[in-house]
Amino acid sequence: MTENYDSAPETKKHIERVRRLMTGAINLLKVRAECHDQSKLGDVEKKTFDIYTPRLKGTTYGSNRYKQELLTEMNVALKHHYENNSHHPEHFENGIDGMTLIDLLEMVCDWNAATERHADGNIVESLRINKERFKMSDQLSKILENTCQQMNWL
Questions:
Q1: Could you tell me the pLDDT band of residue 125, with boundaries at 50, 70 and 90?
Q2: pLDDT of residue 56
Q3: Rounded to whole angstroms, how far apart are CA atoms 50 and 151?
Q4: Is residue 50 domain-shared with residue 124, that is, in the same domain?
Q5: Are 91 and 98 in contact (CB under 8 A)?
Q6: Residue 4 sits in the same domain as residue 68
Q7: What is the DSSP track for 125-152?
Q8: Same domain, residue pair 24 and 86
Q9: Residue 19 has pLDDT above 80, yes or no
Q10: What's the confidence (pLDDT) of residue 1?
Q11: Is residue 15 located within the same domain as residue 48?
Q12: Do the Cβ atoms of 82 and 73 come closer than 8 Å?
């Protein structure tokens, strides 16, 4: 009986199911793209970002000055931002381990866009710093680097 079996119908059904699942992920990414960082425009964060965004542009990501201005002086706004945006590892009690693939994709897009806001921004350097900062595994770090490569960000 198996010699007359035609796998095409089952394969087509599988392909269609994967298509629908991927479309669901795409739709979620579209929603996330539309909502990205909207909290920065609200009362709690906007005033702080108005002051510090121009200052941060002239700093090097990961430098002592950057850490001082970002992690200390912007603390209240950043705490609110992280609490309301799951594309930041700080959103989760267990950091990156609490994130989804959707969160990670938004995160790496955010990291790349953030490098473009710094005079000396560099996604490769950002990935290196963030690997250590967020205690990423070698495997996840390489996946993010591969993604940046595929997106032609490197």
A1: very high
A2: 87
A3: 30
A4: yes
A5: yes
A6: no
A7: HHHHHHHHHTT--HHHHHHHHHHHHHTT
A8: no
A9: yes
A10: 61
A11: no
A12: no
In the chain, the largest separation of any two C-alpha atoms, in whole Å, equals: 74
Residues 53 and 24 in one domain: no
Statement to judge: residues 54 and 118 lie in one domain:
yes
Report the domain count for the chain. Answer: 2
Answer for the pair 146, 136: CB distance below 8 angstroms, yes or no: no
CA gap 85, 91 in Å, rounded = 7
| 43 and 87 together in one domain | yes
Q: What is the pTM of this model?
A: 0.92
Boundaries of domain holding 16: 1-35
Flag whether pLDDT at 101 surpasses 80: yes
Q: What are the tens digits of pLDDT across the range 137-153?
A: 999 999 999 999 999 99
How far out from the chain centre does Cα 152 lie?
Answer: 16
Cα separation, 119 vs 60, whole angstroms: 8
